[in-house]
Sequence to fold (260 residues):
Amino acid sequence: MLETITLYILASIIFSQVVLAMLVLCPRCKLISPNLVRLPQTAVARREIALTFDDGPHEEITTQILDQLDLHNAKATFFCIGEKVAAHPNLVAEILRRGHSVENHSYRHNMLFAFSGPTALANDIVKAQKAIEDATHGTAPRFFRAPFGFRSPFLGGVLRRLGLHHVAWTRRGYDTTSRNPDTVLRRLSRNLAAGDILLLHDNKLGLVVLPRLLELCSHKELRSVSLSMIFKDVKALPQIYKHTVTGACGDHTSSTNAPS
Fold:
């Protein structure tokens, strides 16, 4: 009997740890903490989408991305890494000057970020927050995106105390792992609709894909706006988080198609 009880306890522990790991590694899940994966209905009605760029600023690429956005009168959100912000503060100031949002993507972008305790999480996020505020002369980010989208069970509480809101994405192009711009564009454009949050990276492949993606958005009469433009009233965010639909853990394609 004792052996059976012990086995049940061990099985329960293992099962709970597996479930927890799956939730941590599920970028679009809301079960751990509030997580924005689509824009609110007000943005959908205005035919708006949100282009987001992770991992910048990049000393060669960022300015070219900004130029492409200017050509199409599009606004975007840049989730910047604190270390890179500290190295290139003028680029970050330029992003803001051109009318885009600069948001927090952690200070070091460490693979182990999601497995950190609350103190380590807060220290990293606050350090990135300060780097961005310094570079932008006082404009504090309101949004955070976890490195790789992996979220610690402690992250929600930390963000709440810091007054930040987590943003994931509706669909992504996997432009850090793919070498084919056509494949990246196909992943981003399949069933593309108003209200989508798109994830690209501040890298060469993201830059190659961007002009075609912007042309497609124009053809579909979709307008890219920054998160700061959409969420002027930060007090409305808790309700928006509550009512936006999450979909599955993977990137959204449609109710019938699996993600690429």
Notes: Residues 2-24 form the longest helix (23 residues). The chain has one domain: 53-243. The CA atoms of residues 226 and 232 lie 10 Å apart. The first strand starts at residue 48 and ends at 56.
